[in-house]
Amino acid sequence: MKVFSSRDFNQDVSQAKRVARLEPVFVTDRGRPTHVLMSIEAYRQLSGQTETLVDLLAMPGLGEIDFDAARPGETWDRRELS
Fold first, then answer.
1. Which of 47, 59, 73, 75 gives 20 to 30 Å between its CA and that of 28?
2. Hey, what's the torsion of the CAs at 54, 57, 59, 62, to 10 degrees?
3. Which residues contact 40 (CB under 8 A, 6 or more apart)?
4. Considering the entire predicted model, what is its pTM?
5. Is 2 helix (H, G, I), strand (E, B) or coil?
């Protein structure tokens, strides 16, 4: 657990975010803890949440999907479904 004063936190938010990837960061105001900064993974694990479809679709590094290439030669006509 790492502790940042409010002043230190405000002066170097990037450092606090880097530390929060590894462990929770407590932010204090006049020596008393007031906030906790943690990675989204740690929060999800703590709260029991799982990734949403939006999170999965927003994953970096995924290329665009060519749906036409996935079904070569197939055509789709919605009138066929009626």
1. 47
2. -170
3. none
4. 0.59
5. strand
